[in-house]
Design brief:
Blueprint: H1 10-21, E1 27-31, E2 39-44, E3 49-54, H2 72-95, E4 99-104, H3 109-123
Parallel strand pairs: 3-4
Antiparallel strand pairs: 1-2, 2-3
Helix pairs in contact: 1-3
Length: 133
């Protein structure tokens, strides 16, 4: 498990490249305010949008869920804990006024990035430049 990437996974990097090419600027691995040891994969602080790119195994994707045969009770508990942590993070960020976007690693990066762009543009606060930006 120590070899599993926590950040800069291939789907995450593809989505970030698309967002950057479209002129969107963001922070990477931004700590979740008020929650130690948790971070937002792609954050748009001004628009208060948090994007998480979730791995199918670790976050129990409904389409690709698998159950390891070896040590199955431990894994079931571990994966349930991951899901509970995701829900807690979503609720915490929502209470702080953030919009949370969760993307599965198997999703089409172009569609996922387009969804993020739409949410960011809808949530971006008006600037003092009469909307020119």
């Amino acid at each position: 498990m120590s070899l599993q990437r926590r950040r800069d996974t291939a789907p995450e990097v593809l989505i970030r490249k698309l967002l950057h090419a479209w002129g969107l600027r963001f922070r990477v691995t931004l700590p979740v305010p008020g929650m130690a040891r948790r971070s937002i994969d792609i954050a748009f602080p001004r628009a208060r949008v948090a994007v998480f790119v979730d791995g199918c195994f670790w976050h129990v994707c409904p389409e690709h869920r698998t159950s390891p045969a070896s040590n199955s009770d431990w894994w079931a508990n571990k994966l349930a804990t991951n899901q509970a942590r995701d829900i807690g993070t979503n609720e915490h960020l929502s209470e702080l006024g953030w919009t949370v976007v969760r993307i599965w690693e198997h999703e089409d990066p172009l569609k996922a990035a387009a969804k993020v762009r739409e949410v960011v543009q809808a949530g971006r606060p008006a600037s003092g430049l009469n909307g020119l930006r």
